[in-house]
Amino acid sequence: MNHSSISRATAPGSDTGAGTARGSRFAPGRARDIICLGRLAVDLYAQQVGARLEDVSSFAKYLGGSSANIAFGCARLGLDAAMLARVGDDHMGRFLTETLANEGCDVSRVRVDRQRLTALVLLGLKDRDTFPLIFYRDDCADMAIDAADFDEAFIASSKALLITGTHFSTEQVNRASRRALDYARRNQVRTVLDIDYRPVLWGLTGKADGETRFVASEGVTAHLQRILPLFDLVIGTEEEFRIAGGKSELIDALAMVRAVTPATLVLKRGPLGCQIIDGNVPASLDEMPVHGGVEVEVLNVLGAGDAFASGFLSGWLRDRPLDACARAANASGALVVSRHGCAPAMPTPAELDYFLGEAQADPQRMRRPDRDAKLARLHRVSPARKPWHEVLGFAFDHRNQFFELAQQTGADEARVAHLKNLFVEAVAQTEHALHLQGRIGVLIDDRYGQDALNAATGRGWWIGRPVELPGSVPLVFDQGRSIGTTLLAWPKEHVAKCLVQFHPDEPIEQRLEQEAQLRALYDATQASGHELLLEVIPPKHASLPQGPDIVYRALKRLYNLGIYPEWWKLEPMDAAQWHAIDTLIAERDPYCRGVVLLGLSAAVEQLSEGFRAAARSATCRGFTVGRTIFHDPSQAWLAGEIGDDELIARVRHTFETLIAAWRAAQGTPHQVHQEQAA
User: Fold this and answer.
1) Considering just the CA atoms, what is the radius of gyration of the chain in Å?
2) Which CATH number do you get for residue 261?
């Protein structure tokens, strides 16, 4: 069959077909941009670059699977994306659905398969050209997707349907994928094929040989050519078009593909960029324009194709010209090859805009995008994050104060750990009684509070955890100078909190040491992925200048050093000081999560005055108060004067009183629950 025998006007979802919007590639009134059907798995990426997979000692866990990566990347680029797949009834399946949902991807059609486990892939990074990988996919959940898992209305709700080639490789997934295509064709849903050829998943190599990218197979070629006529857009590498066309010469393979489909063909050419064939295939590749990309140094090509597809679709689904789609695709792929992992390496619109602008101005500098500090920061802060519009926090990360309370009362120091567990129970009761889900915060140490930290983790609370040696000036870290080593063992949801007595006019030797420590901490959190809270308390020494601008100048100095914490913890200030802080943060770090107020043992009424002063601040999100809440009831409990229930009641009473005061200051009074202690 030659190209002229296939009419584009009768192709599924064609521009001239029924139901398409004038001037658009897509039917109007669709709730979703794209549905992605295909692989949804966990990727375990080797953290030791250059090691054989046999010698790797640790792995990073990421969302994986070609379709899932594309759904994730599309959502990150602002598209309304949905995933259509299965996961196991296991921890990894929940990780995948939560990761997609947190990125804004619709997971309502990700079914839980109670008979199978979630798929798994192990990947190594031996060198720029060697990426050993093993697919653990025998009878896995995503290969058990069934046509009964979705209905026609779901498919018809989208502008486009993407399916990856693996989901035609067995009778089960082929049947489900063909049903989805039938629904799409009947409802003018554009169809996209990412060829995604993995010989091992077609049974063409040994089970451990996931690295081989091409094995010729007449059977696979025939199978692909039966489905190619059903697609409007086909994306693939040179090897993938060779298997689709069944020819060893690429231009001949493209001609064979064109003979069975009028689809737009997007040929990925690696560092060269891509070529787009939207009509007849020319006699030579040289006759087709090359949409060049940004040349970068490669760390890891795995996932680059999925990023390319996400970038291309981010333009295509917005009806942008094909050259603009190619520009976004090439840039997305270039960024991912310079980073570790697939899904978490995907760029945001802010990253793409910055990267493309800088690459145009100075292409040589952008050959190493991984070394650009601003780009690294954008990658950290511009993706969707859990919102914290309000933080109502109880701080009991104190260590010296609890040691002193134990000494004063004659209590066994070991009882402090149980005391902090009771604080977690008090906070949990307050959260439940006042319906404060998504607003509760705690600060807990790991010296006396490790059990309390474990109990608090996983509840959806804002959790801060101190790193400083209490009272140290200059700043010293509690677990030693290698703060990055300390953070390795922390759950990602823990915020690294550092109290530093920092004054912009302190002696130069001390200030430089403090700044070096803070810089080391900042760099460590950038590498580990933890958020950072800096609690800045300028010392009140008579030898140092005092004034209303000291806190402002301290924060400005740290910004000047390139330190951008997600959170600041500051003393209460007056309205003028708050205005200055708000302006500084807006100018220097619009991605800052905000400020929380500290207490310093102040009385409830004094703290309430501070709340009222902060009410008009654009950056103050709440408070994390400690001794005001815990000191007196802890002293009584350690002395044996009150029991567990009374301790919890007293802690709740003060904590909930502060919450009510904060809410009242914000103009949102919150009725304190009747269950609180009198």
Assistant:
1) 29
2) 3.40.1190.20
Distances (CA, A) of 166 to 127, 137, 170, 198, 199: 26, 11, 8, 7, 9
Neighbours of 428 (CB within 10 A): 16
E strands of 20-92, at which residues? 32-37, 41-46, 59-64, 81-88
Residue 220, domain member (yes or no) = yes
Task: Identify whether residues 78 and 107 lie together within a single domain.
Answer: yes
394-397-402 Cα angle (round to 5)? 110
| Residue 677 falls inside a structural domain | no
CA–CA gap between residue 248 and residue 203 (Å, rounded): 21
| Cβ proximity of 66 and 343 under 8 Å | no
Q: Is 77 helix (H, G, I), strand (E, B) or coil?
A: coil
The end-to-end CA distance of the chain, in Å, is 86
Please indicate, yes or no, whether residues 46 and 81 belong to a single structural domain of this protein: yes
**Do residues 369 and 334 make contact, with C-beta atoms less than 8 angstroms apart?**
yes
Instruction: Name the burial class of residue 206, with classes exposed (0-12), middle (13-18) and buried (19+) by CB atoms within 10 angstroms of its CB.
Output: exposed
Mind listing the pLDDT tens digit for each residue in 350-397? 999 999 999 999 888 889 998 999 999 999 999 999 999 999 999 999
* CA 7 – CA 417 distance, rounded (Å): 75
Pairing outcome for strands 274-277 and 264-268? antiparallel
Kindly state whether residues 484 and 591 are assigned to the same domain: yes
Number of domains in the chain: 2
| pLDDT tens for each residue of 391-450 | 999 999 999 999 999 999 999 999 999 999 999 999 999 999 999 999 999 999 999 999
Q: Which helix (H) or strand (E) holds 454?
A: helix 450-456
Instruction: Name the phi and psi angles at 307, rounded to 5.
Output: -65, -40
3-class SS string, 91-150: HHHHHHHHHHHHCCCEEEEEEEECCCCCEEEEECCCECCECCEEEECCCCHHHHCCHHHC
Residues 163 and 240 in one domain: yes
Yes or no: say if 623 and 392 are a contact pair by the CB < 8 Å rule. yes
- The distance from CA 250 to its chain's CA centroid, rounded to whole angstroms, is 37
Q: Is this structure's pTM higher than 0.85? A: yes
User: For 546-643, where are the alpha helices, taking DSSP H only?
Assistant: 550-560, 575-588, 604-614, 627-638
Output the CA–CA distances (angstroms, integers) from residue 608 to 61, 392, 397, 612, 643, in the order listed: 44, 13, 22, 6, 29
**Is residue 28 assigned to a domain?**
no
Question: Do 288 and 399 sit in the same domain of this protein?
Answer: no
Is there a single domain that holds both residue 360 and residue 471? no
Q: For residue 277, what is the enclosing H or E element?
A: strand 274-277
The parts of the chain modelled with pLDDT lower than 50 are: 1-21, 671-678
| Residue linked to tokens 């090859």 | 337
DSSP 653-671: HHHHHHHHHHHHHTT---P
Local structure of 673: helix, strand or coil: coil
Instruction: Please give the C-alpha separations between residue 178 and each of 12, 152, 162, 173, in angstroms, as whole numbers.
Output: 14, 12, 12, 8
Distance (Å, rounded) from C-alpha 253 to C-alpha 241? 6
**What φ, ψ does residue 2 adopt, rounded to 5°?**
-95, 170
- Cβ(271)–Cβ(341) under 8 Å? no
Residue 13, domain member (yes or no): no
94 CA to centre of own chain: 15
Query: What is the longest distance spanned by two Cα atoms in the chain?
Result: 93
Expressed as residue numbers, the domain containing 341 is: 34-381
CATH number at residue 585: 3.20.20.70
